[in-house]
Design goal:
Helices cover about 25% and strands about 20% of the residues. The strands form 2 sheets. Strands 1, 4, 5, 6, 7, 8, 9 and 10 form an 8-stranded mixed beta sheet that branches. α3 packs across α5. By secondary structure, it is α/β, with parallel strands linked by helices. It has one domain: Alpha-Beta Complex (Spore Coat Polysaccharide Biosynthesis Protein SpsA, Chain A). It is globular, with a radius of gyration of 16 Å.
């Protein structure tokens, strides 16, 4: 165990890791024409419901959903899945704000945090489990694992309690995008050819590929 109470991935390879799942669903969908991404249906299931279910089915011990814009429409869709909802209080917020809210919504018993944006339509339970496996079997000292596909950073990402506590305190540039390229010693860009990790719905062109 580390001083912060979280197993390092190398030490956790055969241990049960208590994972908190955070689903980011607070955005305004501005590049999509101000449309709630969580309401987009994939195979008849809204993305907010689908991805919260995936986090649960992949073994997350706790679930936190961060809402903001369109929360009135989104919240009723996930009442059947036990979770904690945290809400962005103002109309203007960045992803780092949602990330901080989500992490703060988890209990102290959580050892690692799996963060998933709501707009990812291709992920499967197997994909999430593979990421957890990469985290647990990473070399000693790795505290963050994110997929990297053909040079593009993907999602979801998984990080230790220590990193979660730094985010909760507002330290660093976590969630801003470019920080993953800073080559920190504790950060692993997990190389994979699975394009599910970089498939999202951000523009009308993306949406056209999934909705007829």
């Amino acid at each position: 165990m580390t001083a912060e109470g979280c197993c390092k991935p190398k030490d956790c390879s055969s241990a049960r890791l208590r994972i908190g799942g955070v689903l980011l669903a607070a955005g305004a969908g501005s590049r999509l024409g101000t449309r709630p991404k969580g309401l987009i249906e994939i195979d008849g299931e809204p993305l907010i419901n689908r991805n919260l279910r995936l986090l649960r089915d992949a073994g997350a011990d706790e679930l936190v959903v961060v809402t903001g814009h369109f929360w009135e429409q989104l919240v009723p869709l996930i009442k059947g899945i036990p979770h904690k909802q945290v809400h962005q209080p103002g109309p203007v917020h960045a992803q780092v704000d949602s990330l901080r809210l989500g992490v703060n919504g988890l209990s102290p018993e959580i050892e690692a945090v799996l963060v998933l944006p709501v707009d990812m339509p291709a992920l499967t339970r197997t994909d999430l489990i593979a990421l957890v496996g990469a985290y647990k079997h990473a070399r000693d000292g790795i505290e963050f694992v994110g997929p990297m596909v053909d040079g593009l950073p993907g999602n979801p990402v998984l990080f230790s309690r220590r990193i979660a506590d730094r985010i909760a305190r507002g330290e660093g540039a976590f969630g801003s995008g470019g920080w993953r390229h800073t080559r920190q010693a504790w950060l692993l860009e997990w190389q994979t050819d699975n394009t599910h990790y970089i498939t999202d719905i951000d523009t009308p062109e993306d949406l056209a590929q999934w909705v007829n």
